[in-house]
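$ run holo --ligand "fe (ii) ion" --emit tokens
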Amino acid sequence: MITSLAYFGATSPNYKEWEHFGPCILGCELVEPGPDGAVRLRFDEMAYRLAIHPGEENGVAYIGWETTGIEGAEDIVARLTEYGINAQRASTEEAIERKVLGFYWFIDPAGIRHELIWGQMRSKIPFHPGRAISGFRTGDQGLGHVVLAVPDLEQSDHFYRDVLGFKLSDTVDMPPIYAFFYHVNGRHHSLAVARAPGDKAAFLHLMVETNSLEDVGTGLDLCLTHDIPITRTLGCHTNDRMVSFYLHSPAGFRIEYGWGGLDVDDLWVPRYYDQTSAWGHHHQHPELSPFLPITPAK
Ligand SMILES: [Fe+2]
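-- output --
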């Protein structure tokens, strides 16, 4: 069983910019680089949760999901095999690089690399935010959420629910947007998938949630000070009630920086909306595409 979003990996020629952007804008903590020079960032007690690898192009490399342990991961691997997808057991070296006890990885029907991990390493050193913030809401709810655009929404919906075990939180039908939101823990959604405009999958955004609204406000001020493009203005989502804004990261993908997300439980009944936002979230910088290619290289 998948229990949370454990980590996220991207590639970028601008990976070095994250040494400043991560701590000084987002407020995460810069830690030791990976073996390939990847910039690694902490958000909580975990050794790291975000890695930006050197690469010729901006792209999403992998999405790491925490499972209930090796048995929980192997239950999913069995369902993947039945579905026709072959999952690979990562080598000891690969597990050490991710700072986990072990993981399986596979490419999903939309071409996205997922990693099913267990035993994410916790640091003995307390988390030290890179700027003065109250911290990130992670813990059992994991790093945050990821939103993907997929060419075959029905196929992906079946795959994420019936094979990986995600539970539907709700549906948004706001033409041309049609999207499903899924939970695996108390966070309203750890994953959302929208219909892609073309025939290729793309990455839409990574959401991280702070512990206070002030952290979002000061983040907004910093983006204005440092000329970081704000691609959606401050707003509140209809479904998870997150108060957030979206910024364009140096690796070309968007980050939703928010506070106040709704919790769900086992009694949650999926909802239906015709709008993504109750107020705000106005689009800006149309020259910056919200669709980042998926490059499952790592
Ligand atoms: Fe989001």
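-- notes --
Residues 70-83 form the longest helix (14 residues).
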